[in-house]
Amino acid sequence: MQTSESGTYETLLQDVRLLRQDILAAEVRHAAQIAAVRPRHRYSATNLVHYAELRAHDIRDLQRRLSEEGLSSLGRTESQVLAGVDALIATLTRLAGQADGTLSRTPDTPDGAELLSRNAASLLGPRPNSRPTRIMVTLPSDAASNPALVRSMLTSGMDIARINCAHDGPDKWAAMVANIRAAEAATGRRCLISMDLGGPKLRTGPIQRGPAVLKVRPSRDAVGNLLQPALLWLGAPPSDAMAPVVPVIPLQEAAWAGRRRIGEKIRLVDARGSRRILTVEKADSDGCLVSVPKTVYFVPGTALSTRKKSAADDDTAHVGPLPAFEQSMLIQRGDILVLTRDLTPAEVSADGPHRIGCTLATVFADARPGERVLLDDGRIGGVITGVAADELTVEVRRAGVNGTRLRAEKGINLPDTRLSQSALTAQDIEDLASVKQHADIVAISFVRSAADVRELLRHLDDVQDHALDVVLKIETVAAFESLPQILLEAMRWEDIGVMIARGDLAVEAGFERMAEVQEEILWLCEAAHVPVIWATQVLDTMARTGLPSRAEVTDAAMAERAECVMLNKGPFIDDAISMLAGILTRMQDHTQKKRTLLRRLRAWDLDDADSGE
């Protein structure tokens, strides 16, 4: 007579066997895609298909019932889906009193975790001695001319240098590479080079510049008391460390500032008609450092005099050319914003609809009414209400309470629009010549579909470029939704990886969804045994200011589950690299992918004699 317990096992066994049937049916349906990948990726492609089918089912109730019986709930089967299912079937078969089930895992079945580890080493270099996760760092433009900066980043813990091809150019990229190779020779540390293709630029167009004016103001406390006079440099830019921290005002009479003496007073009437006195604090042959205790507005032609009344040529100079003021549009909720194909600098006006250019022409053919438009990292959001050949009319539905300033060259995201523009632009194809010459890894930006991957691989020669590895930057909702197909297409290449580019992806998916989206990408890539680079704003405040926020330290610790973490540039990047390396080193004893590692915690030792009284 069958017990209720064995009946429970039989019911579970039946449900798991049905799940297995669906998984194998998916493998049959996608047999052609699996067969098209490289032989070394064949098992990974099969496992990816198995995992995608598993996650197409809602098995939460099945997981609950399995857990209640103390059995595997299939929650950690990413790297070996069918083997995990078959191991569960074998256990349930014995518990139900039936003949032993047969495991799909044989001595020849690859170990999924080992496959991922090998793929990570092949793409990203050997695992560092002290931590499981590599560190990638975006190089600033200064890396082309400052070998010491590159060497310092390498000694701090950088494993991979990232060059963004959206900035600088071939000459600077070559100089950066030369400095990396010199730093390798000096430190004995290996550093891979990743070069990101710029991709299609979907940004706001130019805005008319405002008047040429420079405002300088002193520091004051909350009640207006002077804390520090404003400092500025008159004449030719100084060559010492003062240059980057004080504004420089050129003069029409180039030699005038070099004749000034410390303590001398310089008088002027600024653009508002306010009289001001500058005091010379430092002088050399090319210019002088001056201080002023009140706010000053300088415009080209402003007269500077060293005497109260005299206007002798030797005593007077005039401000030279100044950069025009960068204007912005104040966008309010309910406003109408027109995106136009015309890239003529837009006028700033408080009346009527705002108009600004859009740099990607295909948008005007692809967009449809009702689709969302997000600008400047989602600070401004709206819905398309009208589409014309050269214009999109957008009703603004999200902006700051007091409005949000929209400036030139800010990002535009259209998460609902199917863009026909390839992720590989004509400029990207041209830049591939430099990438092939210098890089170990090429990263394709704004990939949206398997067709984008296919286009990139078409421009890579299987023989000549086989050593150039490929990273897919997932930064659009379209890419996230097509990720299984994208990975299967990429597996036609030798070494591949995925970058979770969380900036644009968070804007498109919505910040409230970002946590689950990045988790799902990690899971799917683990199923495909594809290494992941966790990117965007990791220790960003630390790199920019020297002090991290609490939230970003936690974020950096979570990044340990990826095979690589990317830091962006900043004046305190060395400190950020060192901190990240320390966090990753400590976290390796606590987590491994989704698995919590239960190492001994000495902090909670109840038998410690010193912990009581």
Q: Could you name the key traits of this structure?
A:
4 domains, single chain, M1 Pyruvate Kinase, Domain 3, TIM Barrel, alpha/beta, six-stranded mixed β-sheet
In short:
With 613 residues, this protein is an alpha/beta fold.
Query: Within the CATH hierarchy, at the fold level, what is the topology of the largest domain?
Result: TIM Barrel
Name the shape in a single word.
elongated
CATH architecture classification of the largest domain: Alpha-Beta Barrel
Distance between the first and last residues' Cα: 60 Å
Helix content: 25-40%
Strand content: 15-25%
What structural class is derived from the secondary structure elements?
Answer: alpha/beta
CATH superfamily of the largest domain: Phosphoenolpyruvate-binding domains
| Number of discrete domains | 4
Query: Main beta sheet, described?
Result: 8 strands, parallel, barrel
Order of adjacent strands in the largest pleated sheet: 1-2-3-23-24-25-26-27
Total helical elements: 18
